[in-house]
Amino acid sequence: MMITTPEYIASLLKPQVKSQGRKVWSVDLETVWLPFFTATNTAKATAIPHEALGAPLRLAYNPDKTVKFNERSGKPVIRVAKELAESVKLVRENFIANLQHYAGSVRKGNPEGYSNEVRLNSEAGRPIVMKDREALDKAIAEAMSEAMKDREAATPNEAELVTA
User: Fold this and answer.
1) Is 16 helix (H, G, I), strand (E, B) or coil?
2) 69 pairs with which residues across the strands?
3) Which residue has the higher pLDDT, 142 or 161?
4) 76 contacts 87 by C-beta, under 8 angstroms
5) What is the Cα gyration radius of the chain?
6) What is the pLDDT of residue 43?
7) Beta strand extents in the chain (DSSP E only)
């Protein structure tokens, strides 16, 4: 049985132009989230406050109302407006649910094809897993050997103990 991939899923798998701005859930705030939520507000699908969309980045404050600074860098902490962050979280949760639903529907609609794909993936990945396991075992053995050499070099030998 052949399952037709919906266009909204197919579009997720096509390369797109990358942006360079502030990310929220690894997605650009200025070129993706703000236009998206402005559109959803326009379509009356959301009611995100205009202030959240107009000033999406906010200075963070300490409980005593002083400006919060990053302890390591000394830079002021900037947060995404709460309403906007909550809306992104909702989209993320729905996105995950849609991906899970799609995978489940393909698995249910074509169990043999799905099982075959899982088998092919497992077989193709096995040599990589084995190579990585061997490389890791070798690296650990070398690190242990080096640590033992360092320890032996740092420990006084018996001759030094007798003369001390």
Assistant:
1) coil
2) 76
3) 142
4) no
5) 27
6) 97
7) 23-24, 27-28, 57-59, 78-80
If one compares 164 and 119, the residue with the highest pLDDT of the two is 119
Degrees to nearest 5, angle at CA 96 with 86 and 80: 25
Please state the domain extents for the chain: 20-109, 113-164
What percentage of the chain exceeds 90 in pLDDT? 76
Residue 8 to residue 38: CA distance in whole angstroms = 20
- Amino acid identity, residue 73? S
Structure tokens at 10: 């197919």
The mean of the pLDDT values for the chain is 91
Question: Residue type at 57?
Answer: L
d(CA 15, CA 24): 19
Structure tokens at 89: 């979280």
Question: What whole-number distance in Å separates Cα of residue 136 and Cα of residue 56?
Answer: 45
